[in-house]
Amino acid sequence: MRVIGITGGVGSGKSEILAYLKERVNCRIIMADRAAHELELPGAPCYEPLIALLGRDILAGDGAIDREKMAAAIFADREMLKQVNGIVHPAVRTYLLREIEREKEAGRYDYLFLEAALLIEEGYEQIVDEMWYIHADESVRRDRLKASRGYSDEKIDSIMRRQLPERTFYEHCRVVIENSGLLADTYRQIDEKLGAELCQKQ
After folding, report:
1. Whole-angstrom Cα distance, residue 53 to residue 87?
2. Which pLDDT band, with edges at 50, 70 and 90, does 78 fall under?
3. Rounded to whole angstroms, how far apart are CA atoms 159 and 9?
4. What CATH number belongs to 1-26+110-195?
5. Cβ–Cβ under 8 Å, residues 116 and 164
6. How far is it, in rounded angstroms, from Cα 6 to Cα 4?
7. Does the predicted TM-score (pTM) go above 0.70?
8. Alpha-carbon separation of residue 124 from 17, 95, 185 (angstroms)
9. What are the structural domain ranges in the chain?
10. Burial of 30 per CB tally in 10 Å (0-12, 13-18, 19+)
11. Among residues 11, 10, 1, 18, which one has the least CA distance to residue 132?
């Protein structure tokens, strides 16, 4: 089983590409952000440490952590964000390593695709066999975020300022999938990259 990391800036279209891969390739897909959410649920490893750090004000009525309240609690507080990341990121990494090992032993899939916003920052290139950078022009990404999420220019600016520059993605990722245009063109690039494996699945 080959483990491939999928990364790219916000609005680059990673979700559409992962959906296509799920349909076309014998694979499992793990979204690091969803894994983090599960690890923050009551009884999971991050739940009590986060409450101890941020207080019970971050809880929803049902006792689960309200992610919007948690985000508000750490907004503009770099030190608090660092502490939260110090709780969540190691737990996510441990979970991912365990799941990768489990799938390798089970032998059910040809590929495991791991999508993580901080793939490079958190050193996941040490875990995966190959890194793919999903690239889209900034203007395209902005249009997508406005259309699909209703983001303002100010919010988009704020998000993009916190993300890695393009040159860093190019330095760390062996494969670049260009996703600025039609999805058909993007899918063609994926088919060419995984051509042999795709043929075996048809």
Report:
1. 10
2. confident
3. 9
4. 3.40.50.300
5. no
6. 6
7. yes
8. 20, 13, 28
9. 1-26+110-195, 33-109
10. buried
11. 18
